[in-house]
Each structure stands twice: as C-alpha cells, then as structure tokens.
C-alpha cells in the first residue's frame, strides 16, 4: 500500500520514544523511509530544522516527517496524514477519524506514562523528583492505567474482535500494542496484576506484533529497545510487587 | 460556511475546558449546534454515552461531537473533522495538516497548564499537591510557557502575519487566542513579563477575538468564564510578582 514518496522521519536516535509510533506504521506498510537522525550527520539536519532553517511550518519538536514538499510534526498528525496512504486507517472518513481519535487517547496515556517519572519538570533529572514520582506512580498504576486500558478493552468488546476500528489493522492497533509493551517494560508488576482484566487488549497486541509485515522489523536492529532515557522507564521503586 | 448538519457538542457544563476549543470554531462559523450537557437532562445523556450506551466508538472522555451518524471524541480530532467543513482549516490537505499540527502543540501546552495545579493526580484536590504544584509551576512559568509561546511567535514571524496557517483565520488561531487568555487568567504576572516577547501572538489573539463572527459569542452568556474548576486556574501562590 506504500505510495511512491520516500519519507524522511526525524526523531531522537537513542530511544523508541514517540518516533516509534510512526516507525511502526511505516515498517508495517513497507513504506520506503530514512530514519534521518540515525544516519551520518542526521542529527545536524534535524537540529537545523528545529532551529527553523528548513521547511515550513517549522516543527516544535521531534518526531516530524518530511513527505515530498510537506513537513508534519506531532505524532498523531503524522499518523493521520500517513495512515490512509499506508492503508492503516480503516476505510472512509469516519474510520479515519475513529483511528485518529484512538491514537490521541493513546497519546494521552503515553504522556502520563512519561510524567510518572517526571511529574515536576522534563528539564530535571528523575533523581530530582523521586518523592513526587512515587506519589504520581501510585495514582498512575491504580487509577489511570486501568482506566485507559479498560476503555480500550470496552472498545474491543464493542468491536467483537482484535481491531480498534473496522475489521482490519490500523495504526491505532500498532500504537496500542507498542504502548502495552512499553507499560509492561516500565511497570511489569502493575501490568501483570491487570492482565486478567484486559484479554482483548493482550490479544490485539499479540496479533499486531505477529504480523508478517511487522515481525521482521521487531526482530531487527532498527527496532530500538526500551531504555532509561525514553518515555517508558523501569524504576523498580515505582512498581512494587 | 456551516453545512447542513446540526451538531451536538458534549462537554462538562461548568467550565470552558477543552470543550471551549470546539465551541469557538462552531460559533465563529455560525454552525448550528446544541451544547448538550447545558440543556435539561443533558448531563444524563452525556453520561450514558460515556457508559457506552450510545454511538460507536464510545468516547473516552468529553468533549465529543455527534455529527449526523458520526461520533468523534478528542478535541483535536473533533477540530480536524470540523475544520475543513467550517472553512477554518486553511486550503488543501497540507494546510489542513498544518492547522491540525498546531492544534496538537496547543493541546500539549494546555495539558501542561492543567498539570501545573495537578502534578500528582487529577483525582486529588489541589490542596493535596500544593508543594509539588509550586515546584512544577516554576518550571512551567520559566521554561515551558516561553518555549511554547516563543515557538508560535517564530511561526508567525515565518508567516509574516497574524495567522498560524495560510492567509486566513483557522481554528488553530482561535485556539491559540483562547489559550493565551487562559494563561493570562491563571498566571497574569508570568504572562505580563512575557508580553514584550510575543507581540505577534498578542496581535493574533486580538485579531481573533475581535472577529465580527466571534465577538458576539464572547460577549454572550454562552461563553463560560474561566474559573477554579477548569484547566486554567488562578492560584496567586503559583504566580509570584
């Protein structure tokens, strides 16, 4: 389903981060793209774009995508643009909108997953906000994760299947699968306690990551592992047994 | 530019909140809509939808919009749907995408403006997280607001005008104007210190709120005032002189 454009994805090279949501869609669709900041001199090119020395509108932050003469920042906006072109946004305007809506709800969950370890400021180290992170994490584990994943479990009940929208895989499915993996990396005990309540979300994730179009990427070195610089971080003290 | 559909907007009735971003676009375009939860029995209807007793996909949270047989949640997704129909998203796919991208960056700023007074958990009172809020607020005032508003100032420099996208007003302009008003309500001292650095953002806001299509709404009782239950809250201790 990939079209003729050779895409350029710009994202920080050392973490999966928000760039990974775009990467999953591009990889699943077999779309040709360059992961610019992981190429020689790529970071310089990315930073020049962030300084406003490139295309318009200038991006606020990575990830951003260059598609021919269009540049788009914001993960969900990139996916809203790419999804229909890659065949990963369902059929028709209403399904495109539903896919996008789910992506934005996933984005809210992802933002909260980051703020667990940085509740005071992104510019501070985790070590400078540990007591606050511990308080935040308890609410995230006990209230927020169950609310978000319980919501998606309900959506899949409504759908009577393993896809959030329509009858086929969308980028929202890929994003939810990746988010569950990230949460399990960060908070394995909390997610293990929740597993019995989210069988449909787990089935979606299993199906998405087993796709013949995606599994080779996931086993490749292009797939960056979760780590302690990213959105999803494992601090044992935030995830008691 | 309004089309034939009579829209239904669902949002908490007591605060401007995220619903206001949708309201501004509907009002500016003169689109016919019902603000459901502010009508008799409207809260019951909204809560039934949130329990999954209505259209699909069930919404995660307000605001959500019913447009004929389509229901869309997530503020930015609603505006991405409405914007082109209301003539408030620029011309063509690239401008639609740019408008949407800016809306998502505004949404990130709005989320941070909320987390200033709720850095630990939305489910707790402000009084239960005051020391953490004070720490968060310093970073928000000194780093984050200047970064976000400075970015939009650069975009307007690039544009050489008072519109974030193209040559006409888009919903992103309305959203930025409202966000500046919200920040000024919440943190008047911090914004006053920044005013000299954001002349273009201020000019955009002034132009947007003076629109003959919008000013009557802003002066009407339909426009809810900012208050201490919303996203933008004024706690003097978070905004030192």
Quick tags:
homodimer; alpha+beta; 4-stranded mixed sheet; 9 helices; 4 strands; 52% helix; globular
Short recap of the structure:
Chain A has nine helices and four strands, in the order E-H-E-H-E-E-H-H-H-H-H-H-H. The first copy, chain A, is of the alpha+beta class and 241 residues long.
The proportion of residues in beta strands of chain A is 5-15%
Quaternary organization: homodimer
Q: What structural class do you assign from the helix and strand content of chain A?
A: alpha+beta
Q: Compute the average pLDDT of chain A.
A: 97
Distance between the termini of chain A: 44 Å
Mind telling me the C-alpha Rg of chain A? 18 Å
Pick out the low-confidence regions of chain A.
none
- Characterize the biggest β-sheet of chain A: 4 strands, mixed
Order of helices and strands of chain A: EHEHEEHHHHHHH
Biggest interface, chains and residues, is: A-B, 43 and 43 residues
> Count of helical segments of chain A?
9
Helicity of chain A, in percent?
40-55%
The number of E-state strands of chain A comes to 4
Overall body shape of chain A? globular
Query: What strand order characterises the main sheet of chain A?
Result: 2-1-3-4
């Amino acid at each position: 389903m990939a079209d003729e454009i050779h895409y350029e994805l710009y994202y920080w090279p050392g973490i999966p981060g928000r760039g990974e949501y775009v990467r999953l869609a591009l990889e699943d669709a077999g779309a040709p793209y360059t992961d610019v900041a992981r190429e020689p001199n790529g970071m310089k090119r990315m930073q020049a774009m962030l300084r406003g020395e490139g295309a318009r509108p200038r991006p606020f932050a990575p990830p951003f995508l260059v598609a021919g003469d269009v540049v788009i920042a914001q993960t969900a906006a990139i996916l809203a643009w790419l999804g229909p072109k890659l065949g990963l946004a369902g059929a028709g305007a209403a399904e495109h909108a539903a896919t996008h809506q789910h992506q934005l709800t996933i984005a809210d969950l992802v933002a909260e997953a980051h703020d667990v370890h940085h509740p005071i400021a992104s510019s501070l180290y985790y070590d400078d906000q540990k007591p606050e992170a511990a308080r935040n994490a308890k609410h995230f584990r006990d209230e927020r994760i169950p609310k978000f994943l319980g919501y998606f479990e309900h959506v899949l009940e409504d759908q009577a299947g393993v896809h959030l929208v329509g009858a086929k895989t969308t980028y929202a499915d890929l994003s939810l699968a990746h988010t569950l993996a990230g949460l399990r990396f960060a908070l394995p005990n909390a997610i293990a306690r929740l597993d019995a309540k989210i069988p449909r979300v787990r089935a979606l994730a299993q199906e998405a990551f087993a796709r013949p179009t995606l599994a080779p990427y996931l086993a490749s070195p292009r797939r960056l592992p979760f780590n302690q610089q990213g959105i999803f971080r494992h601090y044992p003290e935030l995830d008691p047994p």
